[in-house]
Specification:
The protein has twelve helices and eleven strands. It is of the alpha/beta class and 370 residues long.
């Protein structure tokens, strides 16, 4: 494949240029066939690039943006008032076919709203979802793999139709990217029994199972996430984000606990040295840096969301994720698969293709009104 061009929101996230510029250097070293469009304040960008000896790099182009979307800013305000933000311009570059993907660590809600407005949705899908790969272990084979989990924060309030959409998109992603022929799709719930859960998740389970459009296996609980009980786990963005942050917190807690224990006394230090190979293996499995880079699935464009607090190496990992999805034509695969699924549904019912509708509370404005 020819050179891949990625636009990067350089000003977003908790750390801004202090992280994104070093991450750019890492990404350029890793990928010799990428060009990066760095979107942000031109003067600040040139200053930081000069410090890292990147100012004259042939595969870097600065795209000036006069505004920044703050991490706590309301999505509606960012969409309405920040038309020259680094986030907005980075997304515009995809729409203008100047970039093939966008990476941002900025405000999740603002990124979702802006990306949805600028890039629009894939046919049959109303809302994008954040999908993230979580490590999991098969209890029988003792082999590690990953489960695609969505939504992890793009949509706080979801109805059964939204969860139905997420199930279809997650299944397509697992099949095309992870090469799983019939991905097992499950709903995250407070119990595995069919009677458990509130009305929305009960209705979603009925929709998904009766549609026949995915390999639905039922409910899973939170403690099943790491047990390879499903290839795709579906939930609303509120629950998903809480689950993800809890996982990250537990990983840090365990790491700190081990570190404190190892340095407790000379005997523990000796045992720690003997256990280094084991601890190293465990660290590799749960090193969240290797998983940084969540996909905004459902958009008519490749958008990768980095963790807001990510440092340089994890942010570079998000850039690599964008490069991978472009090279593997993930968007086209998802678009084609969704089209096939909707056509299949129409053929089975004898009616027109089923529209997967959802209530959208956010105001829609035409581009002319913008």
């Amino acid at each position: 494949m020819s050179q891949v061009t990625i636009s990067i929101d350089m000003m977003g996230g908790d750390h801004g240029l202090k992280v994104t510029v070093p991450a750019v250097k890492v990404a350029l070293d890793r990928h010799s066939d990428i060009k990066l469009l760095l979107v942000g304040d031109g003067e600040q960008l040139r200053t930081q690039l000069r410090k890292h000896r990147l100012l004259s790099h042939p595969r870097i182009e600065i795209v000036h943006a006069s505004e920044i979307v703050e991490m706590g800013e309301a999505p509606s305000q960012a969409l309405r008032n920040k038309k020259d933000s680094s986030m907005r311009i980075a997304l515009n570059l995809i729409k203008e076919h100047k970039a093939q993907a966008c990476v941002s660590a900025g405000n999740t809600g603002a990124l979702m709203a802006t990306a949805r407005f600028v890039l629009k949705m894939l046919p049959g899908i109303d809302r994008p979802a954040i999908v993230y790969a979580i490590p999991t272990l098969d209890q029988e084979t003792q082999k590690y793999s990953s489960v695609q989990m969505l939504d992890l924060g793009a949509n706080v309030d979801c109805n059964e139709n939204h969860l139905f959409q997420f199930a279809i998109m997650g299944s397509v992603l697992a099949r095309t990217v992870n090469k799983i022929e019939k991905p097992r799709v499950a709903l995250l719930n407070i119990g595995v029994e069919e009677i458990k859960g509130h009305q929305v998740i009960q209705s979603a389970a009925k929709l998904i199972s009766e549609s026949g459009m995915v390999n639905y296996t039922g409910f899973v609980e939170g403690n099943d996430i790491f047990r390879n009980r499903a290839d795709v786990i579906v939930c609303d963005g509120f629950i998903g984000n809480v689950a993800l942050k809890t996982i990250e917190g537990v990983v840090k807690f365990v790491a700190q606990t081990v570190r404190i224990s190892v340095h407790k006394n000379i005997f523990h230090k000796l045992l720690g040295l003997l256990s280094l190979p084991i601890l190293s293996d465990v660290r590799k499995v749960f090193d969240m840096r290797q998983y940084n880079g969540a996909t905004f699935i459902g958009l008519n464009g490749v958008v990768i969301k980095s963790h807001g607090s990510a440092l340089a190496v994890p942010f570079a990992r998000a850039i690599s994720q964008a490069v991978k999805e472009v090279k593997e034509n993930v968007l086209d695969e998802i678009r084609e698969s969704l089209s096939s699924l909707l056509k299949q549904s129409a053929d089975q019912s004898g009616d027109q293709p089923v529209e997967i509708k959802a209530e959208i509370k956010a105001e829609k404005k035409s581009e002319g009104q913008e």
